[in-house]
Structure formats: structure tokens, C-alpha cells
Amino acid sequence: MTSIHLLIPAAGSGRRMGSDRNKVLLDLMGLPIIAWTLKAAAQSEAVVWMGLVGQAGDRAALEAIVNRLSLPQPVAFIEGGSTRQASVYNGLLGLPPGATRVLIHDGARCLATPDLFNRCAAALAKQSGLVAAIPVKDTIKLVDANLTVEATPDRQRLWAAQTPQGFDIGLLKQCHQQGLDQGWSVTDDAALFEQCGLPVQIVPGEETNLKVTTPMDLAIAEFILKQRLGQP
Ligand code: C5P
Question: Nearest 5°: phi and psi at 175?
């Protein structure tokens, strides 16, 4: 299996969660959200190194969580930026020399399974850009600033992007650099690859791989975890 370096952006806030703490530090069934993410990633045999991207103010808390988990892979702390895009860029600069392929996985997606990491890692041996995604269930409307519907894209062709996303490191660094030079603002790394005209392949994601963003997501995540752990 290909050896994969994994970056985990975890330098966000808890604003949409209604919390004054970074949401990845909030409790989910007795463990911080980020601990679930780290545990699942660490169980993937393909992952040989992890870079945890966090704000300086969260460093002590994040390192304490990592130490308590005693994972088989080394976990490096990398300081994040003011946007996810900036945090990932810092992460890319913090990768060890010699790394060739990277998976990037949001710290807030704490329910991704080791199998999803393995499938992305296997696909990354053959592709230079990929994104885990699932078909959308809703009909999606394209809307203007006055909330008038402009178009209804064909649902058959719409997929909801998740993470992990995986890339050739050299190419992704170039795309991030070009994004910086041109002032592109994106919410995932695949979008930078696309803007640079590079192909991005879909890897089937997981319906349960939600990004914990609001208190409702946290309640759903707890429900899913209880089912997995066989708890009432
Ligand atoms: O805010 P959102 O949930 O979309 O963030 C996705 C991921 O990016 C989260 O895991 C969050 O911690 C991370 N992030 C980051 N640096 C930022 C903002 C978000 O690493 N400045």
C-alpha cells in the first residue's frame, strides 16, 4: 500500500457551533472531537505521518490529546492560518522532506472510517488529485443575491465534496501558490486543483462522514457513534 502523509486542518473556531472554543476540542461521547478523527486516521495502515494544523492558542490542548492517544504514527503540530486555505498551505510547508502524496482531512469530520482513508490512499497511488464525495440527495438551486433562483443544476451530476482529499504534493503546492498569487479564495483543496486545470477524481465517500459544524451535527454524530459502538 502507498505510504501517505496526512494533514488534519483543525485551526478553526466554534463560531457556528455557538461555542467560544475551537469546536474540535468539544466533547463527543467522552472524547474531544479531534480525538475521534485522529483515532480513525491512525487505524489506516497507509498513513505513516500526521500533521495536525492548529492555532497557537490550542497547541497545548491538542498536544495533550495526541499524547493521551499514543498513536503508532508520529504526529507533528503545525500552526494554522486565518482561513482553512491558509492552514492547509502552512501544513503543506510543514510536510517532511521526501513526502510525495498527501491526504487532507478536516479535523471536524470525526466519523470518517479507517476504510475511507485506506480507499483514498489506494486511489492516490493511481491519481494525482482526488476527493471523497457522495451524490447529493436534495435538489440544489443556484440563487442570486436577491434570493431569486437562477438555475437548477441536473442532480445526477452533483456530488457533495467531503474529505479526505488527496494530492500529489508538488502539484498541490503549486496550485496553492498560484491561488495565493491570484487571490483565489476556496473552501477545499480540490477547488485549487480544478482552477489550475488539473483532474480531480471522485472516491465514493460515506454518508456518515459529516462535518461537525452546528450543535445539530454534534447530536447526529453522537447518534451515529452510539450505533457503531452498540450503545443504547
Ligand atoms: O469551518 P469549517 O468547518 O468549514 O472548517 C473545516 C476544517 O478546517 C475544520 O476542521 C477546521 O478546524 C479547519 N480550519 C482550519 N483553519 C481555519 C479555519 C478552519 O484549519 N482558519
Answer: -65, -40
Q: Is the CB of 38 under 6 A from ligand 1?
A: no
Q: DSSP 3-state assignment of 210? A: coil
Where do the DSSP E strands lie in 146-190? 149-151, 159-168
Nearest ligand 1 atom to the CA of 23 is: 12
Instruction: Check pocket membership of 165 for ligand 1, CB cut-off 6 A.
Output: no
CATH topology of domain 4-229: Spore Coat Polysaccharide Biosynthesis Protein SpsA; Chain A (3.90.550)
pLDDT in tens, 53-70: 999 999 999 999 999 999
The CB of 84 under 6 Å from ligand 1? The reply is yes
pLDDT digits (tens, 9 = 90+) for 138-169: 999 999 999 999 999 999 999 999 999 999 99
